[in-house]
Design brief:
The protein is α/β, with parallel strands linked by helices and 293 residues long. Helices cover 27% and strands 33% of the residues.
Amino acid sequence: MIYQKIQWTISRRDVELVIAVLDGQGIDTLEISDDKDISDYYNEKEEWIIMDPFDDYGDEIKLSFYLDGKEKFFTPKILENKIIAEEIKTIDDQDYLYQWQKYYEPIEIGDLLVLPSWEERVSDKTVIKIDPGMAFGTGDHETTKACLDLIQGLDLSGKSVLDIGTGSGILAFACDKFGAQYVKGIDIDPVAIEQAKANQQLNNTQVTFVEGDLVKDVEEKFDILLGNLLSHIIIKMLPDLPSRLKKDHSIILSGILCSEEMEMEQALEKENYEIIDRRKNGQWLALKVRWNG
């Protein structure tokens, strides 16, 4: 299979915006080349004497992501003036796999260990295996980590769960493995559903995956709702969530930039939601809420 590697040169001040917009396009796995990261790493080593400091690292960074070679990608209008330079390369699937095998490493989140599909490891933690395809959710993004952290604080035994915008299925797999009785993952992207079903074969789970429009194509009611999305999508669907909730419920919402925290709090208050817990990870925020209507 042929893939495209798209590399953008952007200003450091636009990184947060670009990542958020790409997340909205279903692209969450990025390679970022930034000399400042190297500078920060060296500066943390107090015992080292830096003979040639990385002081002049400039304002520009390089950000890369991968797409199916047959897929047409149109740069969102909001980013058109943010891209300083663009480079597109065509690579075959073996090169693509090799790239991920170089950079995608095991991730520990509480009692959970997320492994790439090609790695075997004996662990006393609960293991989830993920093939980093084109779907959202490999476990390395701050939003996914925050969700997985909050999920481990839930009593899932015998509970029903709806994972809205399931992506790779990683959150749904975690709920299944931590004792949920019934888990459904829904996504509007058929590629995501295909990838989630493939990942399910790696995890021996019993999640039901369906293609559909968030909560509109779901009729059941659930004990727990998960939504690792983006703020504007979450706010738009808040009025619809109560119709999918059982009386004693929990909701986990993520994909919220810390800079959007106040806006989200106001939207939740307007729709009679109460914030029970929150996690901040980097520039991102995850919330555990309940509806008090």
